[in-house]
Each structure stands twice: as C-alpha cells, then as structure tokens.
Task: structure prediction
Amino acid sequence: QVRLVESGGGLVQPGGSLRLSCSASGSRFSSYNMGWYRQTPGKQREMVATITTTSITNYADSVKGRFIISRDNGKRTVYLQMNNLKPEDTATYYCNIRSTATWGQGTQVTVSS
Result:
C-alpha cells in the first residue's frame, strides 16, 4: 500500500517562499503521475500543480509564474516550490497520485502578516 507524507508547510509573510515535499513509500514512484492540491475549510479541494512521469507540468492559473512542481524519482519525492506567496494561497496542501484516491495527510500553509 502506497503512503504519501507531506511536509514543509508553515507560516510565512506575503511575498515569502516555501518548499513543500511529498515523499512516497514503495518502489513504483517513477510510474506515478503526481499532483499537489489545496483546500480551505469552506471550499472544494482544487488542483494546484501536476507533474507526469516524464516531468510534464501543469499549473492552476492562480499559481502560474509563482509555483514550480518537480520530482526526484530517486528520492521518491515530489516538490512544490512556492514563491511570492499571497494570503489567498493559505490552505492545507495535499499531494496525490493522479487518478487515484491516494492522498497524504496534508501540510498547512498560512500566508499572513
């Protein structure tokens, strides 16, 4: 059974940066398309960024130019570099194996002065 563990969240000032990590158990990480999603209490979970097995990336319009998703198959880890953070980026961030119901526990990102 695959397990995902997110880390790297925290409290940052507007304009600051964070790097989130999602580590996967198992030996088949390189075969997974991965994604980062976020959710606030009153909203649906939304896609932030995705990355395929061949490192093709897609981003939500709201984060284009600010966030970068990447992966390191040797470390079985997908990253989300978040730059120029805005208060509206505040959410719990989850990683996901695309097209599955496999999620991590989430990591909280709060952008506030």
Summary: The beta strands are 4-7, 10-12, 18-24, 34-39, 46-51, 57-59, 67-72, 77-82, 91-97, 107-111. The CA atoms of residues 69 and 80 lie 5 Å apart. DSSP finds no helices and ten strands in the chain.
